[in-house]
Amino acid sequence: MTHAPTPFPEGFLWGASTAAHQIEGNNTNSDWWRKEHSGTSHVQEPSLDAADSYHRWPEDMDLLAELGFTDYRFSIEWARIEPARGHFSRAELAHYRRMVDGALARGLRPMVTLHHFTVPQWFEDLGGWTAEGAVELFTRYVEATAPVIAEGVEYVCTINEPNMIAVMAGAAKAGNVGFPPAGLPTPDEETTRAIVEVHHAAVRAVRGINPDIKVGWTVANQVYQALPGAEEVTAAYRHPREDVFIEAARGDDWIGVQSYTRTRIGPEGPIPAPADAERTLTQWEYYPAAVGHALRHTAEVVGDVPLIVTENGIATDDDERRLAYLRGALAEVAAALHDGLDIRGYLHWSALDNYEWGSFAPTFGLISYDPVTFERTAKPSAVWLGALGRTRELPGGE
Questions:
Q1: pLDDT at position 398, please?
Q2: Pick the CATH number of 13-391 from 2.60.40.730, 3.40.50.1820, 3.30.450.40, 3.20.20.80
Q3: How far is CA 226 from CA 233, 236, 263, 265, in A?
């Protein structure tokens, strides 16, 4: 038996991702903390302590490094850094700088996300992204993060999944609490324009801090698949929900591709997955091939911009299904690399089981934790995936 060529090149980013609000706990100045305690029907439970990673980040990084991962994507919290408008917490900036230094000390390359869905309550009260002065306010925050990102951080993400921010704004304006059975609500056009402008300003601000930082953003790719005769419908449906945000990354240093499942489109629009399809804990169709489609579509739209898989995974309490999903997904990434796509890394979602925006039930993590003692336990999928960080070789070659 001979092995297939190593599919993942030297220097390939190999890691896992998290978001601050979903794992830190007690992020009391954020808009989401207020939502969680307001009686909103779609919030089943509040985040509270979450995984207590605000205090236990060294344990999380220790585990990732021991497992073999070389990269860790985490976000920093605007609501902690600027809890009141114009007031920047030196203590919180120092806290996040310790995380950067801690990652580097463990051999983990930190990728820092500046915004992952949450904003300070004072910013939401002003009107959020469409408020007068929003671009300047976010830019000022980005500039304030210089002590965190100026040294030792090669990759910075300005905004996570801006298309979902616009989609959620559109749903809120329409008075909708949940999402439709298939597809996404119509994005709010004003929010779309604002978030693109904010991103471009943030890119300039990051480059002003250190021009060597590679800066970009991440887009949620729904893998819209046209049924016969629905190609034009699919393109028209996809553009405001996805492609406009990919196009906005054409001047960036990289773009993050985030995918989990697919959405089929017929002549009348999105079609729910078949009744007999395997579903994850989020009720998404189990579809490991999604990431390959997402990479190829993003490359087609964005042009000559390097790609990084910044999120990909599955919500399940059956780790064997997670392993199967990973094998399928990584085969797709390897095939795209083989076909010449410029893919720089793969970061799994997520490092830890976490707070999935209203509930702890959908478990995406490679690592579980006890909600009382917070003791961490690496799942078999974490051991398997981490080992690939050392070998860069998918098993099963002939």
A1: 37
A2: 3.20.20.80
A3: 8, 11, 9, 5
Cα 136 to chain centroid, rounded: 24
Q: What is the pLDDT of residues 2-29, one digit of tens each?
A: 455 568 999 999 999 999 999 999 999 9
Residue 39 CB neighbours (<10 A): 7
pTM for the full model? 0.97
Rounded to whole angstroms, the Cα distance separating 24 from 76 reads 10
Q: Are strands 263-266 and 224-226 parallel, antiparallel or unpaired?
A: parallel
pLDDT digits (tens, 9 = 90+) for 142-183: 999 999 999 999 999 999 999 999 999 999 998 876 788 899
For the chain, how big is the Rg over CA atoms in Å? 20
Place of tokens 């706990």: 25
CB 252 within 8 A of CB 278: no
CA 90 – CA 147 distance, rounded (Å): 9
Please count the other Cβ atoms lying within 10 Å of the Cβ belonging to residue 5: 9
Buried residues in 200-212 as b, exposed as e (16+ CB within 10 A): bbbbebbeebbee
Q: How sure is the predictor about 328, in pLDDT bands with cuts at 50, 70 and 90?
A: very high
- 43 neighbors 35 (Cβ within 8 angstroms): yes
Three-state secondary structure string covering 372-389: CCCCEEECHHHHHHHHHH
DSSP state of 196: H
CA dist 332 and 326 (Å) reads 10
Q: What distance in Å separates the CA atoms of residue 340 and residue 377, rounded to the nearest whole number? A: 37
